[in-house]
Amino acid sequence: MSASFRRRSLRAAFIVAAALALGATAARAQEEGGGLFERLNLDKLKLTALGASMGPVAPTGIAPTTAYSLHADYGEISPRWRVVFTATYWGSRYRAEQIQRLENRLREQLRDTTRSATFDLGAIRVSDIAVGGDMRWTPRNGNVRPFIGGGMLAHVVNAEGKAIAGTVIETALDNIALGFAATTGVDVTLARHLGFGIQGRYDLTSGVRYGSLRVVGTYHFDTAPGRGAQ
């Protein structure tokens, strides 16, 4: 991991810490009688479920791999709208043709009067960590609950390779950026506290874009959404 990427990671961590601090300040203001949380219905947020998912992912220009995700459901912010926070990781390598295009681009930028210069970047590994939240609309309650939604996530993309270590190429491939995601799927209640689901997602950011299909398992702390107490 390059020094510049570490510095950008520290800046991202600082921004997250600042956001958490602002959130804590807003929460204290709410406790003291502030009305902002009430107007946005944020005072309704309460952790109701935790879960995990996994499934195939096919990033553009990158070999298909498996994505692993955790999610925390904070319940309804308004009727039929839920807030779900997610964290996803996957790791893979750039396809050979993608590396070839990068080598060709480098060759075009180089003034080679002898036309004998060669590039061999070798294998380049790449990983993505995405953290953010979704707003999901559920048209019906019950044991089977379809949903559609979208959200915003922060992506930390890290590229590593023996030939690019410590070079401007590694710095250019490393990236920290905000991205958007669209999601749809269905959740099924299996028991009072257990749920199962299938989810399709498409994530878009400046560095990487990819679609994924995931199998989801969820543990509900209380009665699952749409069900009465048993």
Major sheet: 8 strands, antiparallel, barrel
Query: Which residues form runs of ≥5 with pLDDT under 50?
Result: 15-27
Helix and strand pattern: HHEEEHEEHEEE
- Described by the principal axes of the CA atoms, the overall outline is elongated
Q: Count up the domains.
A: 2
- Counting helices, strands and paired strands, the structural category is alpha+beta
Integer average pLDDT: 80
| Extended strand count | 8
CATH architecture of the largest domain: Beta Barrel
CATH class of the largest domain: Mainly Beta
Distance between the termini: 52 Å
Task: Please provide a written account of the structure.
The chain has 230 residues and is an alpha+beta fold. The protein has two domains: 1-44; 45-220, Porin. Helices cover 23% and strands 47% of the residues. The chain contains four helices and eight strands, in the order ααβββαββαβββ. It has helices spanning 3-31, 36-40, 96-109, 168-173; strands spanning 49-59, 65-78, 81-93, 125-137, 144-160, 175-189, 194-205, 209-220. Strands 1-2-3-4-5-6-7-8 form an eight-stranded antiparallel beta barrel. Strand 1 (49-59) and strand 2 (65-78) form a beta hairpin. The protein starts with a helix and ends in a 10-residue tail after the last strand.
Architecture blueprint of SSEs:
Elements: H1 3-31, H2 36-40, E1 49-59, E2 65-78, E3 81-93, H3 96-109, E4 125-137, E5 144-160, H4 168-173, E6 175-189, E7 194-205, E8 209-220
Antiparallel strand pairs: 1-2, 1-8, 2-3, 3-4, 4-5, 5-6, 6-7, 7-8
Quickly describe the structure:
The chain is an alpha+beta fold and about 230 residues long. It has helices at about 5-30, 35-40, 95-110, 170-175; strands at about 50-60, 65-80, 80-95, 125-135, 145-160, 175-190, 195-205, 210-220. It folds into 2 domains: about 1-45; about 45-220, Porin.
